[in-house]
Structures are given as structure tokens and as C-alpha cells.
Design goal:
elongated, single chain, mainly alpha, 78 residues
């Protein structure tokens, strides 16, 4: 009795896999690039990251740390 139930369960699982998840995973290899919307989202994310990075680098604390680093490097004795 247990083997029949197991066989039915495996058969049902195989059918679900072939019609759902498995089919989607197999079709993933056919995607050859980003769509226009993906480019747009990627561009917006890159611009947002650049804006945040600019704000961080031009903040007072970072500027003073960079100036201190450069001053110490120039004042180094050889």
C-alpha cells in the first residue's frame, strides 16, 4: 500500500515539475539579454548609487579625512 501511494505522489510531483517550475527553469537559458525596462531600472539604480557615493565623498568628515591623509603623505620624511 505504501509503495502505491509513494508512486502516485512521485508521479504527481513529476507532472507539477514538468508543467510549472521545470518548464520555467528550462526556458531561462533562452533569455539573451536585458529588456528595456531592466536597462531603465539598472540605470536608475546606478545613478542613485552614484548620487549617494557623491554625497558621502563630499561630506565634511570624509573631506577632512582625505585632506589629513594627503597632508600626512606629503609631510612624510624619507
Amino acid at each position: 500500500m505504501g509503495r502505491k501511494v509513494m508512486a502516485r505522489s512521485l508521479g504527481a510531483l513529476r507532472r507539477v515539475w514538468d508543467t510549472g517550475i521545470g518548464k520555467r527553469l528550462r526556458s531561462r537559458g533562452r533569455d539573451r539579454g536585458m529588456t528595456t525596462s531592466e536597462y531603465a531600472v539598472g540605470t536608475i539604480a546606478a545613478c542613485a548609487f552614484a548620487a549617494v557615493l557623491y554625497k558621502v565623498v563630499t561630506s565634511g568628515a570624509v573631506l577632512s579625512a582625505l585632506q589629513s591623509l594627503i597632508k600626512d603623505a606629503l609631510d612624510a620624511k624619507f
